[in-house]
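Example record for the data management plan.
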Amino acid sequence: MKNQDMRRRIAHAAARILAENGAPDYGSAKRKAARQLGAPDSGSLPDNQQVEDALRSYQSLFQADETRSLLRLLRQTAIEYMEQLAAFDPHLTGSVLNGTAGPHADINLQLFTDDQKEVEFLLMQLTTPYQSGEHRPADNGGMVYPRYLINDPRAPVDLIVYPAAELRNMKRLQADGSPRRLRLPQVRELP
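Corresponding structural encoding:
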């Protein structure tokens, strides 16, 4: 029972850190919150779903109007990029999809194509600067995928390019039953 209480406290402290300071990810926010609360080991860390639930609660209590307008802007920006990248089967993921995006959020898009070089050719035609790199998922046996970060002034747009067949192997739902990614038509229907 004591461990559950500490998990709840860490989840709420991590949510505050994410909402106010824009920690880079849930893991670092949880670790920082645990240090602030004096939790000595990682056995008390909540899972990401607990942090996301606490973040939703925090945003609805303290940042409802600003979260709603920011989310609208980020989703509209995502739609614009998804339209430009339509040939590469773009999917929206992350905090812009699940509604927990804060002022430091980036827009996460996954692209699925067998012609990965064409993505960079298209990016070269855009007027917005970008950087290229690699994405190495921790749970994918050493696979490496191209990654591009578009420096849009509204919000950074993080693109990861996967082979088209990879989509079949990816999980479709989050632990809470919500979708992990949506295509452009479904993103247009989001509030």
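Summary line stored alongside the record: The radius of gyration is 18 Å.
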